C-alpha cells in the first residue's frame, strides 16, 4: 500500500471549515477505493501565518511544499491583510509563481440540484497560467503594465512557443482521456501576433493527435456559443486572461461559482483550489458550501493517480464526484443551495455516501 504525503493549507475565512471537510471526504474515498492512505501535512498560510511568522506564505511553507507533490489550498482574504502584505502578490499567486504551476484546469459540469443555465454542460477549460497580459502571473519580466506619464497606461502581453506547447499538450492529453474534442480560443484577427502564435502552435501540435477533433473560435464568438450550447464543448484551451473570463462564465453556466473546482499544476506538482473566495461574511458559522473544495481535492487525486499510475487514486476521485452528486440529489444541501445542512454535516454525508458506493 502506497502512502502519499499531501499538504493542507487552510487559509482564511471559510478555509478552516471547507478544507478539513475535504480532508474528511478524501480519507473516506481512499478507504473505500482500496486502502491507499494520505499523510496530511498541515502548513501555515494566510492571516494566521502573518500573525505567527510575519509572512502570508512563510519560507518554511514553501520549503515544505517543495517536498510534496500536491496540496489543498484554502482561499485567502488578502484584501484584509495589514500592509505591506496587502500590496504584495496574494498567497495563491506566490505559490503558483514559485512552483511555475502553468496549467489552470477548471471543469464546468452541471449536476442535479445545481441551477444550471445549460443542463448537460460537461466541459473543462485549460487555462495558460503564466503568460498573456496578466502582469502578476507572468514569469517574464518584460510582461506587465506601466505608466510613462500619469495620463498614459500601457499593458504588454507575452506568448511564447514553449509555453503554448506545454499547455496545449496538457489539453490534448486531457481531450484524449475524455470525448476527444478540443477547442482553441483566441483573438487572432486582432491580437494577430500573440494569440495568433497561440493558435498556430495548437494547430501544429494537432498533427500529433489525429484522434482529437480540433476547432477554434475567437473569444467574443466563444462567449456566444457557451451561453447557447455549452453542452457541445469538451476541452477548451486558451491563454491566461481569456481563460480567466471564460471559466467564470462556464462555471456559472454549469451551476454556480460556489461549486466550481480547480487545480493548478505543473508536471511535478498540483494544487487543489476552489474557484470561489474566502467568504468572510459567512466564516465560522458552519454554513459554507464545501463542494468546490471537495471537488478540487478529487481533481488532485485524479492528477496524482495519472502521475503515479495509481488506479486507486483515480477510483477515489470518481467516487467523490459521484458521492457529491448523489448527496445533493438526495436532498442534503448547504444553505446557498437551498438546504439546511451545515458544512460539517454535508461533508459527513458525502463521506457516508462514498463508503456506500463500494
Ligand atoms: P475573492 O476576491 O477572494 O475571489 P469574492 O469577492 O469573489 O472574493 P467570495 O469570497 O467568493 O467573494 O464570496 C462571494 C459571495 O459568495 C459571498 O457572499 C460569499 O458568502 C459567497 N460564497 C463564496 N463561497 C461560498 C461557499 N463555499 N459557500 C457559500 N457561500 C459562498
Ligand atoms: Mg472572486
UniProtKB/TrEMBL annotation:
Cofactor needs:
Mn(2+); Mg(2+)
User: What's the source species for this entry?
Assistant: Acrocarpospora macrocephala
A GO molecular-function annotation: magnesium ion binding
Q: Which InterPro entries match?
A: ICDH/IPMDH (IPR050501), IsoCit/isopropylmalate_DH_CS (IPR019818), IsoPropMal-DH-like_dom (IPR024084)
| Keyword field contains Flavoprotein | no
Judging by the UniProt lineage, the source's domain of life is Bacteria
What is an example of a Pfam family matching this protein? Iso_dh
SMART domains reported for this sequence: Iso_dh
Task: Tell me the PROSITE patterns matching this sequence.
Answer: IDH_IMDH
The signal peptide stretch is: none
Supply the alphabetized keyword list: Manganese, Metal-binding, NAD, Oxidoreductase
Give start and end of each Isopropylmalate dehydrogenase-like domain. 5-350
Q: What is this protein called?
A: 3-isopropylmalate dehydrogenase
